[in-house]
């Protein structure tokens, strides 16, 4: 099964800056994603994208929502249409005239799978948060106090243990960190501090 998208251009440039309302985005999420665990993952990544846009990129509210929206919907088709992952949500958002930058970020969240290279900062951060966020959440589930007292060292130990959350691609994580020009410590610290408060 190939998920390669076979294209590198998404959306219509005339739709630059156009977003869904939060209500419409959440409605789409709730209609398409029935799996609560996946829904939580998407909300976690959305939160990380929002906070990164606000704190690190110092973007205004509209741009914060653009980043958040990319995170919130990046896996929207994974639950019901895994063989059309990425393709289906991109086509849906294209018909709704969504900002091409948001579409591109979603299309490049797995370069090896979809064949689209992360280029913008939004692309790179979505790719960087995706897998690492999942591993950190898996770690929280096995700790008696979940996120309380979790530190970078503990997460790095789990990263090295290939048997832990074995479906999380360490290669993707390393690749993403290099592309985003970040240190693993910085990224882990950022995720732990913000992800803890996200609930479905
Ligand atoms: Fe995905
Ligand atoms: Fe994801």
Automatic annotation (TrEMBL):
Q: Which domain of life, per UniProt? A: Bacteria
One Pfam family per UniProt: HD
Q: Which residues form the HD domain?
A: 41-133
Q: Which InterPro entries match?
A: HD_domain (IPR006674)
Give the residue spans that cross the bilayer: none
The protein depicted here goes by the name: HDIG domain-containing protein
Organism of origin is Segetibacter aerophilus
């Amino acid at each position: 099964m190939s998920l390669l998208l076979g294209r590198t251009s998404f959306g219509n440039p005339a739709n630059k800056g156009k977003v869904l309302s939060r209500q419409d985005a959440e409605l789409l999420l709730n209609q398409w994603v029935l799996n609560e665990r996946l829904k939580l993952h998407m909300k976690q990544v959305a939160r990380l994208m929002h906070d990164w846009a606000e704190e690190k990129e110092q973007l205004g509210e509209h741009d914060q929502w653009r980043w958040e929206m990319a995170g919130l919907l990046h896996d929207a088709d994974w639950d019901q249409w895994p063989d059309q992952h990425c393709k289906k949500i991109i086509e849906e958002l294209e018909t709704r005239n969504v900002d091409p930058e948001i579409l591109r970020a979603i299309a490049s969240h797995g370069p090896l799978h979809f064949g689209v290279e992360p280029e913008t900062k939004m692309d790179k951060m979505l790719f960087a948060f995706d897998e690492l966020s999942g591993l950190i959440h898996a770690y929280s589930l096995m700790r008696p106090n979940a996120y309380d007292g979790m530190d970078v060292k503990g997460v790095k130990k789990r990263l090295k243990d290939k048997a832990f959350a074995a479906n999380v691609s360490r290669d993707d994580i390393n690749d993403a960190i290099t592309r985003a020009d970040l240190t693993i410590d910085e990224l882990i610290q950022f995720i732990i501090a913000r992800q803890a408060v996200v609930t479905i």
